[in-house]
Amino acid sequence: MMINDSRYFAIVAGSLEKHAVEELTEHGASIYSQVPRGLGFTCSQRNLYRILYCSRLVQRILIPLRSYPCHSIKYLYQQARKNIAWTSLFSPSQSFGIDTNVFSSFTRHSLYAGQVLKDAICDSFREEFGERPAFTNKNPDILFNLHIQENRATISLDVWGESMHKRGYRKLSTEAPLQETLAAALVRLSGWQGERPLLDPMCGSGTILAEALMHWSRIPAAWLRDSSRLRLMPGFDVNLWEEVKTGADGRIRKLEKGLITGSDHNPECIKACRQNLSALPGWENVSLTSSSFQSLPPSSGLTIITNPPYGVRLGNSDQIPRLYNELGDFLKRKCPASESYILCGDKNLVKELRLRAHWTKSLKNGDLETKLAKVIVR
Q1: 200 bridge partner residues
Q2: What's the order of all strands across the beta sheet hosting 357-365?
């Protein structure tokens, strides 16, 4: 199985499947299947490289190697051993790892299932070369994915070898940071294209600001990501990769000063935010202020995207409704003619804004069910 084969599988966060379909289609993919947290698609190698370099919503891209009904550990080993040409995918000098997920199947032990697949791979190398490659799940050269659901095993090659939500800009973090793919989805769902100044009045370590900056400036999602493991993929075309990369990089534009603003009451958050943004071109034109949103001056005609703290992030549940009350008052009194997109930690918190939501959308923040509320203040 070579990397230029045309059938792939994208892993996405729960609730982002529909939006990932739109994004992959924009990059030239054709979707042939959709399941919870995943999309099967076909595309050319050029468009695969575009997706790998530019996709903001996809977490992993897999190349399926084999999928088969599987009702026992013994059969898992036999099929993996006999029907996949492991030694054509990587060499004995390269390390490999296995990411395993098991659901509603003959075994509940993902570690054991992964161990059996590891044995099948190592035995294949011993038979052909008389030696086995090193196994590690800490930054391996090659990463495989084993997915067993309802007694069907699917073995795949992970193209990047790590989660694509890792942009490379996060150097410092604060409590409960928003994952990059979800922050990118918030920017996408807002429809913001720079026609209004954007504000995150509770910016934390700056993930929403960073994703907004990358979106407007057309900075590819993988601009900072290490591509060394990608280059180890079988069939990797370095010339085509550099061509796609150069084309995408050539579209980058510098952020206009004052277009993106962030604030947070915690100076340590602003410190982390500044450190994270500093890895991106144009970051110096993002305005950052150490201030509570209640103390910000009035400003009209904004797009506001924010993820207010909730639950464990506040510690005291009594503070949560009051915070949302005050945020709603801030929007009404100080942000006329503005559109706001607020990721509420619970559907019941939407009403605590005390403003009519134009629409709400269900989104998953990890395993937490949240609501994104669009609020328009005239």
Answers
A1: 262
A2: 287-290, 260-264, 198-200, 303-306, 338-344, 368-377, 357-365
List, for residues 363-376, the tens digit of each pLDDT value: 999 888 999 999 99
The model's confidence at residue 11, banded by pLDDT at 50, 70 and 90, is very high
Task: Report the candidate in 266, 151, 270, 128 with the shortest Cα–Cα distance to residue 209.
Answer: 270
Instruction: Please report where in the chains the tokens 């009350």 appear, as a residue.
Output: 325
pLDDT tens digits for 295-323? 999 999 999 999 998 765 445 567 899 99
Residue type, 222: A
- Alpha helices for 162-258 (secondary structure H): 180-190, 207-217, 238-249
Distance of alpha carbon 238 from alpha carbon 232, whole angstroms = 10
- Please, what is the Cα angle at 324 between 318 and 330, to 5 degrees? 135
What single string gives the DSSP state of each residue in 340-356?
EEEEESSGGGGGGG-S-
Least Cα distance to 314 among 224, 204, 211, 207 occurs for: 204
Question: If we measure between CA atoms, which residue out of 276, 339, 341 comes closest to residue 306?
Answer: 341
Non-local CB neighbours of 297 within 8 Å, separated by 6+ positions: 334
- Output the six-digit token pair for 339: 């559109």
DSSP string spanning 35-67? ETTEEEEE--HHHHHHHHHH-SSEEEEEEEEEE
Residue 372 has φ and ψ, to the nearest 5°, of -95, 120
- Are the C-beta atoms of 180 and 211 separated by less than 8 Å? yes
CA-CA-CA-CA torsion for 67, 70, 76, 80, nearest 10 degrees? -20
Taking each helix axis from N to C end, the angle separating 267-277 and 207-217, rounded to the nearest 10 degrees, works out to 30
CA dihedral 132, 134, 140, 141 (to 10 degrees): -50
